[in-house]
Amino acid sequence: KDTVVKLAIATCTAPVNIAVVKYWGKRNEDLILPINSSLSVTLDQDQLKTTTTVASCRSFQEDRIWLNGKEEDINHPRLQSCLREIRRLARKRRSDGDSSVDVGCLSHKVHICSVNNFPTAAGLASSAAGFACLVYTLARVYGVEGELSGIARQGSGSACRSMYGGFVQWIMGEAEDGRDSVAQQVEPESHWPDLRVLVLVASAERKPVGSTSGMQTSVETSSLLKHRAESVVPGRMKQMIEAVRKRDFAAFADLTMRDSNQFHATCLDTYPPIFYLNTVSRQVIALVHQYNRHYGEARVAYTFDAGPNAVIYTLQQHVAEFLSVVRHFFPPDNNGKKFVTGLQVEHLG
Ligand code: 2P0
Prior knowledge:
By secondary structure, the chain is α+β, with helices and mostly antiparallel strands.
């Protein structure tokens, strides 16, 4: 019996989320506390997602991590924050009498293996799905349940929103220690079944300025960002939640596009300025407005994160027609279109 080695193992998946009210700027860099609340839609589990396996074993000498098959540095401060906080929570729950916490595992090292099902060429932020998945899977191995978005937040801000499905808000909170800066589901995924997401890839290149350093410079230099956080986002969050609750696509689309535009305006107001959109992005913006104008109503909405690729929100009944319009104006080249399971990812020209 001495040769039996106890191994605890869990595999989980977490999807990417796409914000319609954007997070941009921190008030606390270490705890990852934002200057404004944000709201996003978490994609389906069968779309863009991260799959993570965590194994814990007495014979492991050290914590280790592999991302997409390549071993990475486990000492990354944000990884360390997540590991430390989950272990701290597990110990606390255990001392509070929660018998589902696996005490044996707690003293063991972990091996973490994480893969994305989408090509990095799609240029979509993977840190949200990645840290959400890591925190959730670690929690499973240790037997911890309940509110974990505050820990995922410490891996990457946007990760806290991927801890829930459907329509999710990240409440900025007020506490200095971040205890009230957590994600909350506004409506479940089943709430708006005909809402669709398309990803239009305008460039597969790496973004020139990463989100973390980009938003830091914006906080330091952009007065527009301060105005946005203090005077625009609070009202917009209320309006967006109402649009989602009522399934009012026209209002949802209008708020989504305005918020994306204001986020990119704050990037331009940052000094030196940050340019995430390119010529193709601007053509997509013009096309969407022309398409909506043609019908006299908002049928399609664009939103852009820290890169030139457009994420399109529309309703199921408009997908085929809008895609045919996109293909007409951006005929696929020889590299052609790419499809990611369940979600249409279209490469533009
Ligand atoms: C968002 N983005 O709300 C916004 C819109 C990009 C543009 O959240 O420093 O990778 O890890 O907290 O979460 C990207 O920022 O930054 C992001 P960190 P994160 O989705």
